[in-house]
Amino acid sequence: MPEDLRNRVDRQPTVDGLSEADLLARIFPRLRMEAGHTASTLLGPGDDAAIVAATDGKTVISIDTQVQDQDFRLLWPNGYRTTGFDVGWKAAAQNLSDINAMGAQATSMVVSLTLPVDTPVSWVEDLADGLTAGIRELGAVRCSVAGGDLGRGREISVTVAVLGTLDGGRPVLRSGAQPGDVLALAGTVGHAAAGLALLEADIPADTLGPAERVFLDLQCRPRPPLAAGPAARAAGATAMLDISDGLLRDGRRLAAASSVAVALDPARLAELAEVLVPAAALLGADPEQWVLGGGEDHGLLATFPADVQLPPGFTALGSIHALGTDDGPGVLTAGPAAGTGGWDHFAH
Q: What is the pairing mode between strands 261-264 and 157-165?
């Protein structure tokens, strides 16, 4: 734990001073949601297991983990202090985005939380607040936290599993893209990468102007477009995935799953990079590299038949092509095949 957080521990209660029941008693009230959010949770926190509804006999499920000093720092080089609210929000956002990418809607979450004993109780309360705020404000109108687990460890670790429903429909997989399809984007790309670069820089966070600060905020609290996934499914999307590890890396995943070539429109890439210029100028960086290789925006990359009107929230980003005799699946930018770039959990 960073020294500044240790010093603050001396001035406020830590989890070491509470029993598991005491800590849960502080967390549970913060997880309460409105009736619409909890309709799919038949039995929530407090028993040995939760009970959730699966009305059409199919359940969509995803799981993700954030680990201190791997996925987030409590204190960043630019002086920004990660709050429990940040971690709770991001834990909700990245999991909701995976359900969204299947064209589904989230119905419930379970959360496993590992904590060092010197973690301030207020930080844990903020995490619970961030989870519920993320669910509400991102628009997961049918989702609530159904239960979870608490444990002790050497660093903070937050694992969230989320369940979702297709309401009787078929999922949108990565493997359905067809030659002639339009490639489209919902949400942002490169913004979270710009935010990460700002966090890692030596420019104090409190000196950033609004034009730069917005990227830092999107790294700490992503905003996946949750209405876009079900809308894409309803409009006839042929393939879709969450852009969590970068446009090139995830584009290549879609290409490989569908055995096609993904071609990105250079003019559109330039437009996406232009938005990032304020942060890039401050750091002396290339904004197009953030667009191509930056992850954690949790936008959607989807393909649609050429005669389908793109649903609200999507804009054209390129096209899908058949493979040549000697070609393998990949991503093309202005002709040549591009490297995969992006985030790899075991290479960073």
A: unpaired
Is the separation of the CB atoms in 138 and 100 below 8 Å? no
Alpha carbon distance 342, 339 (integer Å): 9
Tokens found for residue 281: 């100028």
Query: Above 60 in pLDDT, residue 25?
Result: yes
pLDDT digits (tens, 9 = 90+) for 232-265: 999 999 999 999 999 999 999 999 999 999 999 9
- Statement: residue 347 has pLDDT above 60: no
Integer Cα distance of 131 and 136 in angstroms: 9
Q: Would you call 210 helix, strand, or coil by DSSP?
A: helix
How many Cβ atoms from other residues are within 10 Å of residue 21's Cβ? 8
From the list 76, 67, 61, the residue with the least C-alpha distance to 106 is: 61
Residue 340 · residue 293 · CB < 8 Å: no
Using DSSP's 3-state secondary structure scheme, residue 263 falls into strand
CA 310 to CA 302: how far, in whole Å? 10
Signed CA dihedral, 10, 16, 22, 27: sign only: positive
